[in-house]
Amino acid sequence: MWWQVTPKILLQLISHKDRAKAERATQAMLKMQKIDIAALKAAAD
Asked: Which InterPro entries does the record cross-reference, listed alphabetically (predicted)?
């Protein structure tokens, strides 16, 4: 069985209505081995 916990803020950032903000968050996430919420927020802003 495979499962993964996804932080709610991650889903909010990568599906943000501001597509540029969502893209920055997505690109930052793709470089991570472990999700760093503070870094994702910083990248999105």
From this structure: Glyas_Bleomycin-R_OHBP_Dase (IPR029068)
Amino acid letter, 22: A
> pTM (2 decimals)?
0.79
Contact between 37 and 13 under an 8 Å Cβ cutoff? The reply is no
For the chain, helix, strand, coil in percent to 5 are 60, 0, 40
* The two three-digit tokens of residue 34, written as one number: 């472990």
| pLDDT tens-place string over residues 27-36 | 999 999 988 9
Calpha distance 2→36 (Å, rounded) = 22
